[in-house]
Amino acid sequence: xxxxxxxxxxxxxxxxxxxxxxTVIGPMPASLHEPIFKGNEWHYVKDCIDQxxxxxxxxxVKQFESEIAKYTGAKYAIATVNGTAALHLALILAGxxxxxxxxxxxxxxxxxxxxxxxxxxxxxxVDSCEVNFGIDVGVLRLYLEQNTVIKNGHCFNKKxxxxxxxxxxxxxFGHPCNIAEIIKLAEEFKLVVVEDAAESLGxxxxxxxxxxxxxxxxxxxxxxxxxxTGGGGVIVTDDDHIAERAKYLSETAKQPHNFSYxxxxxxxxxxMPNLNAALGCAQLECLPSFxxxxxxxxxxxxxxxxxxxxxxxxxxxxxxxxNYWLQTMLLNEKVASYQENIIKNFLNAGILVRxxxxxxxxxxxxxxxxxxxxxVTTKLAQRLINIPSSAGxx
Amino acid sequence: xxxxxxxxxxxxxxxxxxxxxxTVIGPMPASLHEPIFKGNEWHYVKDCIDQxxxxxxxxxVKQFESEIAKYTGAKYAIATVNGTAALHLALILAGxxxxxxxxxxxxxxxxxxxxxxxxxxxxxxVDSCEVNFGIDVGVLRLYLEQNTVIKNGHCFNKKxxxxxxxxxxxxxFGHPCNIAEIIKLAEEFKLVVVEDAAESLGxxxxxxxxxxxxxxxxxxxxxxxxxxTGGGGVIVTDDDHIAERAKYLSETAKQPHNFSYxxxxxxxxxxMPNLNAALGCAQLECLPSFxxxxxxxxxxxxxxxxxxxxxxxxxxxxxxxxNYWLQTMLLNEKVASYQENIIKNFLNAGILVRxxxxxxxxxxxxxxxxxxxxxVTTKLAQRLINIPSSAGxx
Lengths: 394, 394
Description:
homodimer; alpha+beta; Aspartate Aminotransferase, domain 1; Aspartate Aminotransferase, domain 2; 9-stranded mixed beta sheet; 4-stranded antiparallel beta sheet; 35% helix
């Protein structure tokens, strides 16, 4: 293979990309990510219905929480109705207030920005890194040094005068970002870390599970995730007080009392129903085998693309263990303009692929929020394509 | 039976109340409200798991929405993750903005007040009626005439200067409030009506289903409701544009596009998962039989309490057909002070009962919001006790 700098775009044939994927998953139509239900899903869900406890009370919620805590190594896990609810509540528990700014990547699913907005706070976008697609810590340090000032133990945006209260690193497509360095930076700049690990159950950074580095972390169990509860999420934390408040606020802030309905603050209906937790308990049992298949799928894709000059399959960052939630093609900058053509080629063949999300700073809702320069984010948005990633494909 | 005014409190024995309930439900422990799963619940849920569509995509959500619309007579039904989410979204769609006031009963579940607060609006409490426990329209009319002014087609609170944008009538325990009169009043005072019909699936006012009088109505399918989806809710409306926006906003405001992720405004993750909708479809099939049983249970309670001087069983208001979701004892004012004793008596016998919710104006979160005088609410809070109400009790 020649040096990438010597590549000539005339040699690129978008059809080759489709063919390479087909050598791995076959010629039949394929979806982007499908769940697999071949474990105890029926058994547990039926038990849940037979017991009559399908809603907010029931043993599967506790079991799911306890198993998530055990698997991730977090002290506590609090199940929620979905990942967005988990992130909204986690940000509240992190102390984010109306008028605050929260540092977040622009290269993320819209829920990250929405959850910040629900509080009346504002996302403040920062650039991403070419290797792991998460927040670029080096670039962020320079940006914060120039644009913020620490006063009374808080970080202030010099331009807006607002407190920058927290930072929400996100592990994109399941690949761990440089979370250890982000934690150090956050300590220095007085930022609370809420880890958006929605996509990274089963992903580890230096042997420690993603989502457990920040004061709080959240996961999603939407139907397209590595394991699913239909709809669901979880907050993890090692902090006793925060864990207690997470449960309390997710259950309408109802005071413990054997008959009276007393709520001492504005709470939320963010509980995960027991029916969904039952599905989750069965899915968790299968997680190791799903992860094994997804890793094998990565290796197959990697092999299929090994001779390709213009497209690489994204691999886990150094010192990380990725769940390979969504397999991803990274286009060479020279062929970035083919992104849409390539996607349409796949869709015409019945194979579902998608570009990375449109970066949040390009959406109307977030067009005027504070932002660092985002050159890498803007380029990555044109270069990333997710391809079929189901554990059942291999 | 003597005139109630001649009653002597010395003749009241709280034990008689417990005994009367036991003649209906037997001496064994009983919960307040339990779901029944004896229809197609397992069949549909298994089908849903077998199909692999447990999450936001799937046929059961559409079926559930279509059947709710048909049953209630609403043009559209949009399924949500729970009743609180439905109410929050319905208020946004009703045009409620931060800083607005929303008229609501104080005698309601805390979700009514919370949903208003999520928007940054403020509940403005109004008094309830002794007959149906919903908003007292006559009293409210006098209050609005004295305390509000209509300017540029909007109702303003003379004291706070804020717009009173909407009114949220609630059908307490499933008994229809005087919704037709509330609709008239709302038109006169330029208020949008969002009906909190969380508890009243199967309840009709003059032959028209509750929840379908307002511009929007919402229902809950929490585990304690007449039918359950584990956790779930629905918005109903006859308005084409609102229905379309309800679906759009509940699905993260994602623009229809075959591959790009474009969100043109702040949306929510408020979809009902297909797994929960599958349960709901089966439960809906059983709704007629549940309603029949609950009505029979009411008649049995009514008979058991017919000789009692100090306690009556609440019956459906005139011209209404109630789902009798929660059976309720109304204590004579003279024995209201026994409310807690009576409750404890039941709990000691293993029979779960509860007082009506603590009125919202007595909760710290809502202690300083605008409020009309609430003399009836305050008294009713001391006089109402819900007793075992499951359809399976008879």
